[in-house]
TrEMBL record:
GO terms for molecular function: phosphatidylinositol-4,5-bisphosphate binding. It comes from Aegilops tauschii subsp. strangulata (Goatgrass). Residues 70-94, 132-160 are annotated as: Disordered. PANTHER family: EXPRESSED PROTEIN (PTHR16092:SF29), SEC3/SYNTAXIN-RELATED (PTHR16092). Residues 73-83, 144-160 have a biased composition (Low complexity). GO terms for cellular component: exocyst; plasma membrane. One of its GO terms (biological process) is Golgi to plasma membrane transport. This is Exocyst complex component Sec3 C-terminal domain-containing protein. It comes from the Eukaryota.
Length: 253
């Protein structure tokens, strides 16, 4: 997939990431991995590490090129009023200029469901003994409801708790670095239009509310970090605007 340019966003065209075919091919080896784990659990360590490293390269490139194209196609469309509409479609010509908040919405819509699905698939494919939802193999949806929103309510055993810790380490390795492309979108949107923080915060909060599964915990951390970053930026802008407002009111008096 890394060698095929058609799998990635190109100039003038946003390419929504689609890993369905890759997952289908991976399932061919699912029984083999289960057999390997039953023979020697330690053999899973290098296999998991190699899988996470490869997927990290793929997802980071997808996110980087998607984020860059969003900014390049939207930078001339500074919006003076925030948009409160739902998430914009993730697959469409990038030549259509969007407001900064709409560009952020596209980034969230395209990648958050993908990251949740990949987290769930990793847990299943790499034989982690953790409770997962039934939606781990579903295709990414374009709505704030993610595939992990119907998580299992079963109490984890000691083995599953230990596996969950190892899984979180693997997820961090698999998704590490992708946050930089989300931060870049947030910082860019704030510079173009500080008021875009309002709809961006709302969009992020909706996705946070949709996270119900422990398996995708790293995604929840990413969303929380984004919400904090947006809040800090907007608070900074508000504090800078307060002296201006006071001086204007004093001049009127």
């Amino acid at each position: 997939m890394l060698n095929d340019k058609d799998n990635f966003t190109q100039k003038g065209l946003l390419q929504r990431p689609d890993h369905a075919d890759m997952r289908y091919k991976c399932r061919t080896y699912a029984r083999l991995l289960q057999f390997i784990k039953s023979l020697d659990k330690s053999c899973m360590i290098p296999l998991r590490k190699a899988y996470c490293h490869s997927l990290n390269l793929l997802i980071r490139r997808e996110a980087r090129e998607y984020s860059n194209e969003l900014r390049n196609s939207s930078k001339a469309s500074k919006s003076s009023t925030p948009s409160f509409e739902g998430p914009a479609g993730a697959n469409q010509p990038a030549g259509i200029a969007d407001s900064p908040a709409e560009a952020y919405s596209k980034m969230i819509t395209a990648f958050i469901p993908l990251l949740v699905d990949e987290s769930l698939f990793l847990a299943h494919f790499m034989c982690f003994e953790v409770p997962t939802s039934d939606g781990s193999d579903s295709d990414e949806d374009s709505t704030p409801k993610t595939s992990g929103s119907s998580g299992s309510s079963a109490k984890p055993s000691n083995n599953s708790s230990a596996d969950l810790g190892v899984l979180n380490e693997c997820l961090q390795e698999m998704l590490d670095g992708i946050q930089e492309d989300f931060y870049a979108i947030v910082d860019w949107a704030f510079k173009l239009d500080p008021l875009s923080c309002i709809p961006m915060h709302g969009i992020t909060d909706r996705y946070i509310a949709g996270q119900k599964t422990e398996v995708a915990g790293y995604v929840s951390v990413l969303l929380d970090d984004l919400e904090s970053r947006i809040t800090i930026l907007f608070s900074r802008h508000s504090s800078l605007m307060m002296p201006v407002s006071r001086s204007k009111s004093m001049s009127v008096m």
